[in-house]
Amino acid sequence: MAGFSDIIGHEQIIGHLKNAIALDKVSHAYIFNGPKLSGKMMLAEAFAMALQCEGEGTRPCLLCRSCKQAVDHNQPDIIYVSHEKPNTIGVDDIRTQINNDIVIKPYSSRYKVYIVDEAEKMNQQAQNALLKTIEEPPAYAVILLLTTNADSFLPTILSRCITLNLKVVKEDVIKSYLMKTYHIPDYQADVCAAFSQGNVGKAIQLASSEEFGELKASVLQLMKRLEDIDLYEMTAAVKQIAEYKLTVNDYFDLMMIWFRDVLYMKATNDVNGLIFKDEVYDIKKQAAKRSYQGIETIIRALETAKVRISANVNFDLVIELLLLTIKETVLIPPKEVDDDKVVQPLKPVIRIATDDDEKVIEKNKEKEAEAYVICKEKIAKHGLDMKLVAAEYTFDNNKLLFYFTADGRIDFRELVKDLASV
Question: Which helix (H) or strand (E) holds 330?
Answer without folding.
Answer: none
